[in-house]
């Protein structure tokens, strides 16, 4: 029993990462009432309240080791603490080598402190109690199924589906036909205890899933009965109103009116030509009538072309002025057009796999640097490997979900299947084949070859956000080139952007060596801009 309770997972870093990051997609559909509920909804995928390790460390005694202030900062943004040099944070990150999910904007300080108080006395923590009938013979009506759906989404959806497909654990379709209600209650509430008791079914499941223990769930018997009712009939209740991380609702883009404008222009030109022909005929008829009345023959221009020649020959000065104006206007237009060569602002190609940044970076709040990991330490931001996609999509298959891409709805599972196809991965067996093929992604942002740009210099040293150049990517389903990326645009940014000197020893030394006269001139406006420290030198970008 001690061996099981003190089990330390021998799974690879890859498997542990999958479980940890799957918690990123946990859907919180109930309002937390106390620390036990909040812990149950957010933390049980990675932590036990005991000393045993799951993905992260066991949290027994954590309140004796960490202050409330430290605990709050860590839960809200652990990576920020690591970056700031907090010794305890760095030690934890080095030990587990898995970044903890940021709960900034997900949990309030009061909710995090409620978890802290719960961890100080988890045995006395209040369990999640919902108004569900205790009778086994209760009719599985809409209210019961709705309640079960809430419990399932809050506690189980990170690892299980209500269908037959496997996520972290097995699909739960038909589970009530395979196991008794009594057995399921024991398993869900404390699977390690059931395994330790020698239960054959419990041990078989434990062995099948590589001895990865299912964490005990702080739910009541009534919660479990409601959840089983929902699993048995998941379509019997309308979806509980919630913001899903898989479906993006966006305004449809405006239709391109260029074709309509072209047709309208052609119609106007044709109408004007017909009108000129008719007016010319009327002019000739009137002129001939006047000539006959005076007894003279009409010798003037008859056709429209002859009339134009006659008009030009009699108004050479005016015509010359018009020609000069048109010449210089055309020259200006030509120069403007030349300035736009190589500028692709607004370019938004559809990718071979319809990846929505609005869902991943916006709704799911995944840090850009998680996928584009080389942006912090390399010239380029890098194209994410499909293995990065599989960290989550090994388990998240998007079945029955749709998302918006370029104004149209697409089934999510078909796009995820494209990832599997390129990796020659069989989601049913979990095996990779040997016929893997690369995805032919379409490049969106493209600088000239003679221009040098380093992501590391701007992201790490300059501390610029991705949105500075790429715009609100978190709101885009199809990523487009937001900024012009022209030389003038870069120069303007260097003139306006302050240098991030705080906490940077290089700039402290630079200030100490700066002549007072120059320092007073530079610091006149209270800031140092990029161009004031050589950011306008040609060789900086055109080496």
Layout of strands and helices, then pairs:
Layout: H1 2-5, H2 13-22, H3 35-42, H4 62-65, H5 68-76, H6 78-84, H7 87-96, H8 109-120, H9 142-155, H10 175-178, H11 181-189, H12 191-196, H13 200-208, H14 221-232, H15 258-293, H16 304-313, H17 316-339, H18 357-363, H19 368-371, H20 386-393, E1 402-405, E2 408-411, H21 412-423, E3 425-426, E4 431-432, H22 455-461, H23 467-470, H24 487-496, H25 505-513, H26 516-522, H27 538-541
Antiparallel strand pairs: 1-2, 3-4
Helix pairs in contact: 3-8, 5-6, 5-8, 6-7, 9-14
In short:
The protein contains 27 helices and four strands.
What structural class do the secondary elements suggest? mainly alpha
Number of helices, where a helix is a run of at least 4 consecutive DSSP H or I residues? 27
* Average pLDDT score: 80
User: What's the main sheet like?
Assistant: 2 strands, antiparallel
DSSP helix fraction: 40-55%
Can you count the beta strands?
Answer: 4
Termini, distance in Å? 67 Å
The stretches of 5 or more residues where confidence is low (pLDDT under 50) are 1-33, 125-140, 237-254
- What order do the strands of the largest sheet run in, or round the barrel if closed? 1-2
Shape: elongated
Q: How large is the radius of gyration?
A: 34 Å
> Strand portion, in percent?
under 5%
